[in-house]
Amino acid sequence: MLRKTLSLAGFFGLSLFIQSCSLFEKDVYVIADVPDIDNQFEMNVVWDTSVGSGVGKFFSSLAPAVSDERVFVASRGGKVAALDRSDGSKIWTTDLSDEEENDDRRSPRISGGVSLGFDKVFVGSENGYLYALDRSEGNVIWKYNAGEEIMSSPVALADRVIIYTTSGRLIAVNDENGEELWKTSSEFSELSLRGTSDLTVVENGKVLMYGTPQGKLNMIDSSNGTLINTIIVSLPKGRNSIDKIGTVSAQPLFLDGELVAVGYHGSLMHFAGGASNVWKKNLSSYRNMSYDYSDLFVTDDRGHVHSISRSTGEERWVNKDLSYRDVTAPVQYDSYVLVGDMDGYLYWLDSATGKIVSMERVDSDGLYIPPVIYDGIAYLQTRSGDVYAITREQQESRSSDEEDDD
Q1: Burial of 398 (0-12, 13-18, 19+ CB in 10 A)
Q2: How many CA atoms lie within 13 A of 311 on its CB side?
């Protein structure tokens, strides 16, 4: 197989957003070949269907939102659908491209996740709109124009929905009517990664945590947006503008009363109460983390997948088989860690050893987000808009014949 190379500019083509001109180094990154694996088991597709035409090559980290009976999915082009969780059949489909504010746009550019709350489905867009849809029928109940790109998943709390824009601003709107309740000032950075950190809810919904383009972890009062505390996660140093990017775009974790955060060109850090540092590890990442009862799983900026002790920060194992293959965030599933890559392969890593024990190509257009795990099933959405319900057990496969028109 031909060995492929990728320049620094090419490697960050999907992930890096440069808002000012800078001089790139001439470093060359070698992309690992597709591994040759003798599968220990085959991936079982319980059902599959599609939603619109997916996200293509754009930065839209759309993942399914799953409830007891339904799976909710969206496409960049504006299709939002509710699927029956048992067989993938479509219950309803709404096309947000029909909304008047999108008449003069190429697309609604849905990118701000899919989230659930108050019997509603929430999605945000790069056009700056937050949409609230009725969960049972899919009707648009209200919309809010933030005027700024929304690229992380909205969060529903108490009587409000909170969004985080690419300017570094948090905005809370009323759940019933979409009226603005409060907003924070912008934390704009001239040089940052494309996208924003997902919000983490702590203290029974009273506090929100999120990463910033300046390499900080902020904690705010969710009732009024007041800043409670700030922790520095990333203080990058370097010779060029790329090396100096210190964005915290990975969602922070709050585990058993302690928090974990990681920064790009920063560190993986574990904090106890009072924000005192328990341990710190030199590791750069912009992907969300996953965990089990003892370990953290992290994909670094080179595509290496790490297993790290939650209590000590000690590295259990690192898998380097997928270097620079634009590897997704990891997700823990039973005794495996699942990741995808730019060529659309889904890999199953043994969570005890890090060894790839099975792999299968799901979508030639690539995978950008990992599956969502719910009740023993992995729900995966590909760049092409295909949606899969996956297990590793050999069960009778069922396929939904119904497909959306693009």
Answers
A1: middle
A2: 2
CATH architecture of the domain with residue range 4-391: 7 Propeller (2.130)
| DSSP 8-state secondary structure symbol assigned to residue 399 | -
At 192, phi and psi to the nearest 5? -155, 170
CA distance 155 to 150: 12
What CA–CA distance (Å, rounded) separates 63 from 164?
17
Which residues share a beta bridge with 298? 306
Here the tokens at position 176 are 């019933």
Please, what is the end-to-end C-alpha distance for the chain in angstroms?
Answer: 34
Residues 260-312 pLDDT 10s: 998 887 789 898 765 567 899 999 898 999 999 999 999 999 999 999 999 99
Among 47, 77, 82, 45, residue whose Cα is nearest residue 65: 82
pTM (predicted TM-score): 0.85
**Structure tokens belonging to residue 40:** 């220990």
Tell me the DSSP string of 200-247. Answer: EEEGGGTEEEEE-TTSEEEEEETTT--EEEEEE------SSTTTT---
| CB-facing half-sphere around the CA of 301: CA atoms within 13 A | 28
